[in-house]
Amino acid sequence: MHEIINSLFNYALDNDIAVEYTDKLHQNTQSFADVRSRSIVINANLATT
């Protein structure tokens, strides 16, 4: 699984897409992407049910 994640992060880096993986967001906040700013925010604190 780590290989897939690393590959995706490298793809983003190679294509000028900013990625932030954070646990600072509320557990109900969805991960999101913004096309205009070419950025992705991944919520590591997202609640799983």
UniProtKB/TrEMBL annotation:
What protein name applies here? Uncharacterized protein
What domain of life does the UniProt record list for this protein's source? Bacteria
Tell me which species this is from. Answer: Fructilactobacillus fructivorans
